[in-house]
Design brief:
Mean pLDDT: 91
Radius of gyration: 30 Å
Shape: globular
Distance between the termini: 47 Å
Strand order of the largest sheet: 5-4-1-8-9-10-11-12-13
Length: 823
């Protein structure tokens, strides 16, 4: 089975390299031809491709066949002839890199491809069939081309068509238009330039012209390329413009073909399910394609200039880092350069660097085949994007896990030195096994094979820059459970063993090992404890002193709870306080008692850094700032999701028992600008808009005191249309966030809501520390005893701040507003 087969021309592009003193151009030969260029891009990204065409039995033809084979393009459909020479194209570039062409093709071998010479079985074995109009300039090859398109259509294949109008190759424009319109009758995906759109429809109005093609020919996806401006995409009633990427243009040859290859790659990644593509999907797919096309223009030639996926990722990353105008992109929270982000993974401190790995799908902004993304910081605030650390392999996708420093080389990976070891879940399906409990759905596709989750290792000898898969993977297997994932590993000095805690359906399991490779089951916990409102995920187990007393320590077990349609809260995180003896965790809580780490809607899968310096003394955690209830639908383009700010964890005694405290790490104060407002000592009665404050990235420290008041609080990200309320009901002690009017919320019915928790106040005083960052609100009450984290999606013009009180006055013991700088 092939992913994509194309039929048409493969030729030699002669591209100018320089000129003599007499302005006589000198050329170098480069393999090219639009249908072959598309395949070159796809093959570069490990898609299976095949080419059907005809070349001369000459030096150029042999060179082209060798080139296609070197690009892993199947050439069983390529035939050679002595009746004509291989087609040559001379490319002329202007000062902007734009092209005109001269052809040596009278006839060219590609024109002589007959229907009897085409191996149509290749077309039948492909998911996508691609062709252009150049193979229809001569009647012999035109018959072969149209027959191939008919066979592809009859066999339910996706048909891709590129008119690729080259006027010098046609006897007249009426003939060209006639053949192009025939091509449209077969097309599911059409790639067309602005000029070609006007040639076909008579209008340069993108919306009107594309709609005309859709209505008249039923083309399912229409891609209008707009050079450096990006592209216009239509799928039925969905019509969107997707901006391009700036590039230092050298040669635009092959850019449109690379663009189409990029889009078809994205379509293949979505199992060619065109009907299921929504606007966000199309934007993400087109953005990737735009990046591929732009990147190719920075290189000479076509086939040999196609970039790797890592090249494309780095290009998008660089462009994203140079652009701060993306809607909703946070300014001081970590977010991915592009694509999808969820759980933080592999948090480890080593040689002066905090490593943040995370669940990452770089090719669209929805959950997909998981990789480990990678970022590095020296201060927990400013992050450098790094290339993908660990990518899927023959054992499956790379799910969540942890990383540790193997200081004593217990694993034997480091020749007696120290190094980093990642322990993670490999996820795939059991081969030839039907899931007996019925089908389930991932990314819109019904799957019937039984999921398989196994624990594996990778190691790094260069401070986490590159990773090697352990040849003995997987190292821990459990065949009875489907949900068996998210290992968190730490060294337990008391037992001289590694400890691994991971989620196992409705509980956690604990294993021990002397070397990270061989694991022994130790115990399990939780089947009858705490909340079971969703599947258990992302556990973490660590020890903390109570109120800083080193002689009085407790162990904390954090467990995240997945989304359940029966509960409006969606995914969230609980914790347990207890003891751990190196084998068994025992909770101090009653079985039905539930403690939540965060009472907002958007703090999930949080885990802590390992190997933080002993003299630092902190347990530092970061979480995924989203909720599985709506994570795939939040209204961002090109990227999706961010991390919470890092938090320092501690334990304290309260009237209700020992509780976990979360406070922003102190390094965040380095982002503060000069205080813009200080209202300390002010008595507040009614509403007060804080004039002169304007921004969507700031911190507020405020302490309220009252004797008789009903309710008070703040309104942030405020305008005439929108506001997010952080309120406190004095009688009940209920602190809440109300985001019912916070901005865009139509993506999920449960997003607009009011929620919170009770706060114990001492002497009728309430202290809040609030962080606002473009699309998020994080509230820390009474030094982190209660925390609320929420996403919001306000318009950028909703940047006001107001204070309010109802049913009485409230005193501002202190109030300071700090603008925060971008990282």
């Amino acid at each position: 089975m092939f992913d994509v087969t194309s039929l048409g021309e493969v030729l030699i592009d002669f591209t100018p390299v320089d000129s003599t003193g007499d302005n006589i151009a000198r050329f170098e030969q480069n393999p090219g031809g639009a249908p072959a260029n598309v395949l070159a891009a796809l093959s570069r990204w490990d898609k299976k491709t095949a080419f059907i065409g005809k070349v001369g039995n000459d030096q150029f033809g042999n060179f082209l066949k060798e080139t296609l084979e070197s690009c892993s393009i199947n050439i069983k459909g390529v035939v050679s002839t002595d009746d004509a020479s291989t087609t040559l194209a001379f490319v002329h570039l202007d000062e902007r890199g734009d092209r005109t062409f001269s052809f040596v093709r009278n006839p060219g071998a590609d024109m002589l491809l007959s229907a009897s010479e085409v191996n149509y079985a290749i077309v039948e074995k492909s998911k996508i069939f691609h062709f252009g109009s150049i193979s229809m300039t001569d009647e012999l090859a035109s018959v072969a081309t149209i027959k191939a398109a008919m066979i592809a259509k009859a066999n339910g294949k996706i048909v891709s068509f590129d008119p690729n109008l080259r006027i010098p190759l046609w006897n007249n424009l009426e003939h060209a238009k006639e053949k192009i319109l025939i091509g449209l009758t077969f097309a599911d995906v059409l790639k067309i330039s602005e000029e070609e759109l006007e040639f076909i429809t008579g209008t340069n109005d993108l919306a009107r012209g594309s709609q005309q093609i859709f209505l008249q020919y039923g083309v399912r996806i229409i891609l209008v390329t707009l050079a450096e401006k990006g592209c216009f995409v239509r799928k039925g009633d969905i019509a969107v413009s997707v901006p391009g990427f700036p590039a230092d243009v050298v040669d635009t040859t092959g850019a449109g073909d690379a663009f189409l290859g990029g889009f078809l790659y994205q379509l293949l990644e979505r199992d060619c399910q065109i009907d299921r593509l929504n606007e966000d999907n199309l934007k993400s797919m087109a953005r990737f394609a735009n990046a591929v096309g732009a990147l190719v223009t920075t290189r000479k030639g076509a086939i040999l200039s196609m970039p790797s996926l890592s090249d494309v990722e780095a290009f998008i990353m660089k462009a994203s880092s140079e652009s701060n105008h993306e809607k909703y992109r946070p300014l001081f929270h970590y977010s991915p350069p592009s694509g999808w982000l969820n759980d933080p993974n592999g948090l480890v401190y080593y040689e002066g660097e905090y490593h943040l790995f995370y669940q990452y799908y770089p090719h669209k902004n929805e959950w997909g085949p998981m990789h480990w993304g990678h970022a590095v910081s020296k201060d927990l605030v400013n992050w450098d994007h790094f290339p993908i650390a660990i990518a899927p392999d023959h054992n499956g996708m790379i799910f969540s896990g942890s990383a540790v420093v193997d200081w004593n080389d217990t694993s034997g990976f480091f020749g007696g030195n120290a190094g980093l070891v990642a322990v993670f879940t490999h996820s795939d399906t059991y081969p030839n096994t039907i899931y007996e409990k019925g089908a389930y759905v991932i990314d819109g596709k019904t799957i019937t094979e039984r999921p398989r989750q196994r624990q594996s290792l990778a190691y790094s000898t260069d401070k986490g820059r590159t990773w090697t898969m352990y040849e003995g993977n997987p190292v821990l297997v459990e065949t009875e459970l489907i949900d068996f994932r998210d290992p968190k590993v730490f060294w337990n000095a008391a037992t001289n063993r590694w400890v691994l805690v991971l989620a196992a359906d409705d509980h956690v399991r604990i294993y021990t090992s002397p070397n990270l490779k061989e694991w022994t089951f130790a115990s399990e916990f939780g089947a009858q404890m705490g909340s079971h409102a969703g599947v258990w995920e992302c556990p973490d187990l660590f020890e903390l002193p109570v109120d800083g007393e080193c002689e009085n320590k407790k162990w904390v077990l954090i467990v995240s709870i997945g989304d359940n349609t029966e509960f409006s809260e969606g995914s969230r995180t609980q914790y347990f306080i207890g003891q751990f003896d190196g084998v068994t965790f025992t909770s101090d809580l009653e079985p039905e008692e539930v403690l939540w780490m965060d009472y907002g809607r958007d703090n999930y899968a949080g885990v802590s850094w390992s190997d933080v310096r002993e003299e630092d003394g902190r347990r530092i955690l970061i979480g995924w700032m989203s909720n599985w209830k709506y994570a795939n639908h939040t209204p961002t383009t090109g990227w999706r999701s961010a991390m919470t700010i890092p938090r320092s964890l501690s334990l304290t005694k309260t009237s209700e028992g020992i509780r976990l405290i979360s406070e922003p790490v102190e390094e965040l104060t380095g982002l503060r600008g000069q205080p813009a407002t200080n209202l300390s000592g002010t008595v507040l009665s009614g509403d007060r808009l804080l004039d002169g404050l304007s921004g969507n990235a700031y911190e507020i420290e405020v302490e309220f005191e009252w004797s008789d008041v009903g309710e008070f609080g703040l309104k942030v990200c405020q305008s005439d249309r929108e506001e997010t309320v952080i309120g406190f009901e004095a009688d009940s002690g209920f602190l809440y966030i109300d985001r019912t009017r916070s901005g865009e919320s139509s993506f999920h019915e449960l997003f607009p809501c009011k929620h919170g928790a009770k706060v114990e106040t001492d002497g009728k005083q309430l202290k809040l520390r609030i962080f606002i960052d473009q699309c998020s609100v994080e509230v820390f009450a009474n030094d982190g005893r209660v925390v609320l984290t929420d996403l919001i999606f306000p318009d950028s013009s909703s940047n006001g701040v107001a204070l309010y009180s109802k049913g009485g006055d409230v005193l501002l013991n202190s109030f300071i507003y700090y603008p925060l700088n971008a990282i």
